Amino acid sequence: MSVVSAARSGLRSAAAALAATTGGSGERGPKRSRPARYSAAGLIARGASGRTWPRAWRELPLQRSYDVVIIGGGVHGLATAYYLATNHGITDVAVLDKSYLGSGGSGRNTAIIRSNYLTPEGIAFYDRSLQLYRTMAVDLNINVMFSQRGHLTLAHTDAALRTMRWRAEVNKLQGVDSRVIDPATIERLAPGLDVSSRARYPILGALYHPPGGIVRHDAVVWGYARGADRRGVELHQRTEVTDIVVEGGDGPDGKGPGGRVTGVRTNRGDIATPIVVNCTAGWATLVADMAGVELPISTRPLQAAVTEPVKVFLPTVVVSGSLHVYVSQTDRGELVFGASVDPYNNYSVRGSLEFTEELASHVLALMPGLSKMRLLRQWAGLCDMTPDYSPVMGFTPVGGFLCDVGWGTYGFKAGPVSGETMAECIATDQTPKLIAPFALSRFAAGRLVGEKGAAAVGH
Amino acid sequence: MLLVPCPHCGPRNATDLRYVGEAHPRPDPGTASIEEWRAYLYLERNPAGWLRETWYCRSGCRRYFTLERNTATNEFRQPALPGNKVGGRA
Q: Which of B42, B45, B71 is opposite residue A347, by nearest beta carbon?
């Protein structure tokens, strides 16, 4: 009784709060089409009044020219646009996606966030991303459900344990919270894991990374899209780039090294622009081919699966490199499983039975108690693998054509910092220190950044 | 399941073979510049379509051979020329 009346009286003040924050439902002049800010009060007010939510971003006609064109409307492209507008005041930007926003890797990953990498370059980079994730809900005014629940990488062999110790020490040196723990501690952190010595692959220890966790990947995409749109960036869905216009290059049609970008052709018309940023995953080499830039990338699908929801029992993210599997439980109770990339180059995102069989056997080796669980669905995303498991970022031999590609199995967690650094790269015309090690030129120079802690599985 | 047509063993599960990768022409190590050699090592064509590639039949005939596969549809076809010795001991 008292709860209901409290909720009712709260409703009135909530509606008043909403009116104060958004200027109410009435006259807002030219800004009226802008999306409303999200708040708990607004949620209650709209729930009670039945008013529909306004569109989160605008749908606009395509202009003939932009200062910057970003290809790929995933978390990388949208974050780049958002930080261009927010940090550098560059708002004449178009983000083009051939499908809907977040339809590629951004909506297909397993949403795990961590920074316990192996190379100093990688650790500094991914740790900055983790910092941005930490304040994202406030910065973007959207609930991204970021949960720093801890991340366990299991070691089943002495060699694996040795690598964990190595990673832990490198992490500590960089100020990242990461340590090796014993099976008894693992059992406390992740009940349900078979830590006995009878297991087929006994668990000898684990690398424990308390700041690691999960986030709701769709909300991250929508948050950046909404934030970028609010600052004047144009988002164009179902707009496929069919060619990149380059002049003065060494290759055919003036493309290739030494050339300069003058525009892009799309299925909705041509656009003139001095800067094109390739933020695609899966199609990175196909887009780079349009500009005449060769990349050290091979495309492979990675399959993942999700179970029916059950009562929450797994409070951490569990990864096993030897068993090629990682497991986390969403707040809704589904278990999300990921695996390693398929063993051959492929552009198909079809699931396969052998994946499901192997995944199930590996999960059951870790958690025998799950034998009655049912898989709800499986899917695949395309991963652009580089020879050293580090991305390719920044300038290319074609002037005005920048790349933020080669994101393998670690692109989602790097989204925010990639956007921030790529925006700085575009705005200042200089490569930020954080991404200098990931330049395309490292392959010709033989300075690879061997990131063996990249995907926790598969290599 | 991807069935790979091994020229010696017939159709085999992809898991019985090892994927070696794109069949690049290998430059002469004696005369290639460092840049040419690194381009051979690292750069990929990575097309979404027909790709000439090398497989190793690790649990069958244990030979390397070259095939053409469509990376978008996973269809196989034999390469136009019978030079099945790319990439190793055959």
A: B71
Distance from CA of A299 to the nearest CA of B (A): 7
A28 pLDDT above the threshold of 60: no
Q: How far apart are CA A93 and CA A82, in angstroms?
A: 10
- Are residues A238 and A306 both part of a single domain? yes
B59 lies within 8 A of chain A by CB: no
A181 and A226 part of one domain: yes
Interface test with B, best of A98, A287, A345 (most B CBs within 10 A): A345
Contacts of B53 in chain A (CB under 8 A): 344-345
Residues A18 and A75 in one domain: no
Give A74→chain B minimum CA distance, Å.
20
Q: What is the pLDDT of residues A174-205, one digit of tens each?
A: 999 999 999 999 999 999 899 998 998 999 99
Q: Is the pLDDT of residue A95 over 90?
A: yes
Q: Which of residues 2-31 of B touch A (CB under 8 A)?
A: 2, 14-15, 18-19, 21-22
Show Cβ contacts of residue B20 under 8 Å, excluding neighbours closer than 6 positions: B53, B54, B55, B56, B64, B87, B88
Tell me which CATH homologous superfamily contains domain B3-24+31-77. Answer: Folate-binding superfamily (3.30.2270.10)
Contact: B71, A343; criterion CB under 8 Å: no
Instruction: Please check whether residue A262 is in contact with residue A274, taking contact to mean a CB–CB distance below 8 angstroms.
Output: yes
Choose the closest CB to A285 out of B14, B44, B73: B44
Domain count, chain A: 2
Q: Are residues A167 and A186 in the same domain?
A: yes
Backbone angles phi, psi at A251, to 5 degrees: -85, -170
Tell me whether strands A275-278 and A68-71 are parallel, antiparallel or unpaired: parallel
How does pLDDT run across A223-282, given as a tens digit for each residue?
999 999 999 999 999 999 999 999 999 999 999 999 999 999 999 999 999 999 999 999
| Domain regions of chain B by residue span | 3-24+31-77
- Inter-chain CB proximity B42 and A285 less than 8 Å: no
- A29 and A67 inside one domain: no
Cβ–Cβ under 8 Å, residues A301 and A380: yes
Q: Kindly state the tokens that stand for A410.
A: 């670690």
> Is the CB of residue B44 less than 8 Å away from at least one CB of chain A?
yes
Domain range for A331 is 58-459
CA distance B75 to A207: 42
**% of chain B at pLDDT higher than 90:** 79
Examine the domain organization and report whether A45 and A118 are in the same domain.
no
A411 shares a domain with A295: yes
The reply to whether A241 and A193 lie within a common domain is yes
